[in-house]
């Protein structure tokens, strides 16, 4: 009898234990499945391979993959002024496994310059971390008689003709229009398919000036084939201490940047976004990343989700105001 009772008690305890395990199993499995990241991550880049945003995505993606113990794959989806890549992320789940590398073009310029944009940068996406930023430069050929922005403005006004201003994207067109509104100078935008073509025409004397990413023009400025009249940052570039800012040139509100940042869909859970932010921030602070950043022409941005959202909003409002003042309508 004692043996049978013991057996029954042992069976009861085992049954209760099994029931407890079965009851907890779904929650435990869900917790395990929900651990982020538990599978590869993709970064969609709206530019061609070899671009600055592409190179940064691959570099930081590799470091993030090592930190998380997961593969990070970079996919180039150029086209439509960034719309192809943006839509690619928007149409996928908001789970943090697809990240958008975006710049000022799709996030602050397109909403101002394009009709019927199929996304809303502020409502559809949330920043993870700012990656890099650099100023725009107004450039002329090295032999140009114009040494400053003031020289350019005064010389153009004396000619009685509008200033032909080269650009190779809607963002640079807006920067050129901005110069026109703050100086009272009529500006005629001259569009190019790329910055290299525009710089070639400026060097050759076919074009007086153009607005360009300062980092892209820096090599030719060092070679004294181009001259930068001013840059749009809040302070001078340490590598070019003789190039003044637009603020120093007499235009105190003239500040804007070419920038890049990682984004996820707006509905991505806070804990996932924060884990991505902390991961990127940790790898960006590594010695390997510091060495990489020191070799880049643009500065590290390192703004978190809240600060980056405020920065993007300010850039959008700035371009919106410039377009209104210049009479530029979405097209």
Alpha-beta content class: alpha/beta
Beta-strand fraction estimate: 15-25%
Unreliable stretches covering 5 or more consecutive residues: 1-33
Q: Can you tell me the CATH superfamily of the largest domain? A: Bordetella uptake gene, domain 1
What spatial form do the alpha-carbon principal axes imply? globular
Q: What Rg, in angstroms, do the CA atoms define? A: 26 Å
Q: Number of DSSP helices?
A: 12
Helix coverage percent: 40-55%
**Main sheet record:** 10 strands, mixed
CATH topology of the largest domain: D-Maltodextrin-Binding Protein, domain 2
Mean pLDDT across the residues is 90
- Provide the CATH architecture of the largest domain: 3-Layer(aba) Sandwich
* SSE order: HEHEHEHHEHEHEHEHEEHHEH
CATH structural class of the largest domain = Alpha Beta
């Amino acid at each position: 009898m004692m043996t049978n009772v013991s057996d029954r008690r042992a069976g009861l305890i085992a049954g209760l234990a099994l029931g407890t395990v079965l009851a907890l199993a779904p929650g435990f499995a869900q917790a395990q499945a929900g651990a982020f990241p538990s599978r590869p991550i993709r970064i969609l880049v709206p530019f061609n391979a070899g671009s600055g945003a592409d190179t940064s995505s691959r570099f930081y993606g590799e470091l993030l993959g090592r930190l998380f113990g997961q593969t990070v794959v970079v996919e180039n989806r150029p086209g439509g002024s960034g719309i192809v890549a943006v839509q690619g992320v928007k149409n996928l789940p908001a789970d943090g496994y697809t990240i958008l590398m975006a710049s000022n073009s799709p996030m602050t310029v397109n909403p101002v310059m394009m009709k019927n944009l199929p996304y809303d940068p502020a409502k559809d996406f949330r920043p993870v971390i700012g990656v890099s930023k650099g100023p725009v430069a107004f450039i002329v050929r090295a032999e140009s008689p114009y040494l400053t922005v003031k020289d350019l403005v005064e010389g153009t006004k004396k000619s009685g003709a509008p200033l032909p201003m080269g650009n190779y994207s809607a963002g640079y067109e807006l920067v050129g229009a901005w110069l026109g509104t703050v100086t009272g100078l009529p500006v005629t935008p001259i569009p190019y398919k790329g910055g290299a073509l525009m710089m070639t025409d400026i060097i050759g004397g076919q074009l007086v000036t153009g607005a360009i990413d300062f980092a892209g023009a820096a090599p030719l400025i060092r070679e004294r084939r181009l001259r930068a009249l001013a840059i749009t940052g809040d302070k001078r570039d340490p590598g070019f201490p003789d190039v003044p800012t637009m603020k120093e040139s007499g235009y105190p509100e003239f500040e804007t940047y070419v920038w890049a940042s990682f984004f996820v869909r707006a509905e991505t859970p806070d804990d996932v976004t924060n884990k991505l932010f902390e991961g990127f921030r940790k790898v960006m602070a590594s010695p390997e990343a510091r060495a990489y950043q020191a070799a880049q022409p643009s500065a590290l941005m390192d703004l978190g989700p809240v600060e980056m959202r405020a920065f993007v909003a300010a850039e959008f409002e700035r371009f919106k105001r410039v377009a209104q003042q210049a009479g530029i309508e979405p097209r």
